[in-house]
């Protein structure tokens, strides 16, 4: 683990060094560019590792990000140790590392072939180091427990309760044994591993496949879900009830997107902010704390003698729309830099930082 320190050491420098470190260019280049009045083109450094079959989804362990788990379309889940590659990138500064364009052949440190089909659902526990949960297209969910010696015990008996493919999984940010799942059957289920292999509660969440989930790490009662019909919903888990047919937990429902939701994620820096991507080639950022203020609009109109030209069909919670990518698949917020997002698509990936949301995010050290 000593070598792994190379990565966090560079990432946790002072505020004044953050921009330089994250731009993948050294301070000399930055100063030269400033003197010339221009900015350097971004430098992308990468290391490629061969993977057997298509990568359906890949996730890094929260506590040890060099350990990653990948779902293969061949039907198995593999665990990888990428510390060698991360350290090579951390040490390389601006020069392209030798062999940077080649593909490295590396054996996974663990390979599980017990699922009956391929899958997409996978999530590392943010609370218990090494604990993992995976779900497949045959509606089965498996719990992984770490053992000594970089191996895992995968529960022989799966969690069952969904009637179709399990599409996404999210661990509770506050409970060690609790996780949520969503499925093509339109349902979301909450599970407690201590209570057996059936869901503690299951409810109809959307009228179509539920593709993605995000459990809010800052406001742990809030769960967001995105559907194949283009809608996404926010639920307050405190209001879930097994005794009532009426779903009182739904606190917000948006139908802005008209094509399937492909990714959804709460901001790690602001509890009311989340980002959503869709097959309509749009990435949207939302702040659920915003509401239409008719008094403010009237005051503005009185002062300027003009009508407020806010489109009637745009929700006031919609902060930003990012376009220009084809077939958006996934987005993630940067854990260190408030407001920064990376998004992947069939034509590449973007890194964006919308200027109009900076005022809604907390300042560094706040």
UniProtKB/TrEMBL annotation:
<feature type="repeat" description="WD">
    <location>
        <begin position="254"/>
        <end position="296"/>
    </location>
</feature>
<dbReference type="Pfam" id="PF00400">
    <property type="entry name" value="WD40"/>
</dbReference>
<dbReference type="InterPro" id="IPR001680">
    <property type="entry name" value="WD40_rpt"/>
</dbReference>
<dbReference type="InterPro" id="IPR051972">
    <property type="entry name" value="Glutamate-rich_WD_repeat"/>
</dbReference>
<feature type="repeat" description="WD">
    <location>
        <begin position="159"/>
        <end position="201"/>
    </location>
</feature>
<dbReference type="InterPro" id="IPR036322">
    <property type="entry name" value="WD40_repeat_dom_sf"/>
</dbReference>
<dbReference type="InterPro" id="IPR015943">
    <property type="entry name" value="WD40/YVTN_repeat-like_dom_sf"/>
</dbReference>
<feature type="repeat" description="WD">
    <location>
        <begin position="112"/>
        <end position="145"/>
    </location>
</feature>
<protein>
    <submittedName>
        <fullName>GLUTAMATE-RICH WD REPEAT-CONTAINING PROTEIN 1</fullName>
    </submittedName>
</protein>
<feature type="region of interest" description="Disordered">
    <location>
        <begin position="1"/>
        <end position="43"/>
    </location>
</feature>
<keyword id="KW-0853">WD repeat</keyword>
<feature type="compositionally biased region" description="Acidic residues">
    <location>
        <begin position="16"/>
        <end position="37"/>
    </location>
</feature>
<dbReference type="GO" id="GO:0042254">
    <property type="term" value="P:ribosome biogenesis"/>
</dbReference>
<dbReference type="GO" id="GO:0005730">
    <property type="term" value="C:nucleolus"/>
</dbReference>
